[in-house]
Specification:
about 325 residues, alpha/beta, 10-stranded mixed sheet, two-stranded antiparallel sheet, 11 helices, about 40% helix, about 25% strand, binds 1,4-dihydronicotinamide adenine dinucleotide, binds magnesium ion
Length: about 325
């Protein structure tokens, strides 16, 4: 039995979570779902956006599913990543049929460092003339994420890992990143090809030849920017899942937010949340169920009969949920 912490959050977070839990319940796996509160509504009701009980629930689970928070997102999801030490942010960029994808054959994984780099956000007023921000790159954290990327490549039959940095300008910090990248790559010689690019060139290659990437590993800020570029390549937020993985657990969530413009109408696209659940099944090594759910989602997309309005259809979230279940 798996203990799954379920944190629906606000707005469409609740709607896509309901659809996804309904689908997961029909897989025949013994899940024990326990719900936790977090987000704007929780702040209003309980005086805090992320109660201790919810953090404990997430910590004591085998995996955590998160929907979306509203204005409190930074206090909720960023904090949860820290509390659970979720050092790897995984964002698959994959094109699906009948979405608004710009390319048909994109399928790569961005492995983003989640704990340091620019996003330690240590900023201060420097002089009256300006301000300063510190960017931290440690051997330990970068080795950990690069190791993770190569391991991911190996266990998912990928042939290449691309390290992305700006070592020509940031010679010391990104120089260190590049050095560690090739140190780790040595352990995989003959198995996994290693290449590295500057981040600006990568931004262009993602548009001119996205199909050439398999696994990208990079630091926090670059990973954040490149993964949104990736979302743009494959048709937007309703289709992009993510996983946060670390020492003390794992948390899976759609990349989108609470979407107040469509919340309450029951028309949110549940695929980003369902694909996040597929990533959870992979993490739990329930590979057969992962494949079944992936295939069912693909069939619904291929038929294009039951799609939400963002994909050009007129179906509701729960109608998509039923369509997926009938394909399982
Ligand atoms: P958003 O992702 O909520 O929405 C952006 C646009 O995409 C909206 O037009 C929305 O209708 C559409 N959209 C997003 N997901 C969709 C789906 N599954 N199906 C159909 N359409 C979808 O981002 P926005 O508007 O910038 O932020 C809204 C709230 O969400 C804010 O309070 C923000 O703080 C929060 N937020 C939370 C995140 C999280 O919890 N991880 C991430 C991003 C934003
Ligand atoms: Mg971002």
């Amino acid at each position: 039995m798996y203990n799954i912490a379920v944190i629906p959050g606000d707005g469409i977070g609740k709607e896509v979570m309901e659809a996804t839990i309904t689908v997961l319940k029909s897989l025949g796996i013994n899940f024990n779902f326990t719900y936790g509160e977090a987000g704007d509504e929780c702040l209003k009701n309980n005086g805090e956006a992320l109660p201790k009980e919810t953090i404990e629930l997430a910590k004591n689970s085998d995996a955590c599913l998160f929907g979306a928070a509203g204005e409190t997102a930074a206090d909720v999801i960023v904090r949860l990543r820290q509390e659970l030490n979720l050092f790897a942010n995984l964002r698959p960029v994959k094109s699906y049929p009948n979405t608004n994808a710009l390319f048909e054959d994109v399928d790569f994984m961005i492995v983003r460092e989640n704990t340091e780099g620019m996003y330690i956000a240590k900023e201060e007023e420097f002089t009256e003339e300006g301000a300063i921000a510190r960017r931290i790159i440690t051997k330990k954290a970068e080795k950990r994420i690069i190791d993770y990327a190569f391991q991911y490549a190996k266990s998912n039959n990928k042939t290449k890992v691309t390290g992305v940095h700006k070592a020509n300008v940031l010679k010391i910090t990104d120089g260190l990143f590049r050095e560690i990248f090739y140190e780790v790559a040595k352990d995989y010689e003959g198995e996994i090809e290693a290449e590295d690019f500057y981040v600006d060139a990568t931004a262009m290659y993602l548009i001119t030849r996205p199909e050439s990437f398999e696994v990208i590993v990079t630091t926090n800020l670059f990973g954040d920017i490149l993964s949104d570029e990736g979302a743009g390549l494959v048709g937007g937020l309703g289709m992009i899942p993510s996983g946060n993985i670390g020492g003390n657990g794992a948390l899976f969530e759609p990349v989108h937010g609470s979407a107040p413009d469509i919340a309450g109408q029951g028309i949110a696209n549940p695929f980003a949340m369902m694909l996040s659940a597929c990533m959870m099944l992979n993490y739990l090594e329930e590979f057969e169920a992962e494949e079944r759910l992936n295939n069912a989602i693909l069939k619904v997309l291929n038929k294009a009969e039951t799609l939400t309005p963002d994909l050009g259809g007129n179906s509701s979230t729960m109608e998509v949920c039923e369509a997926v279940i009938s394909e399982l």
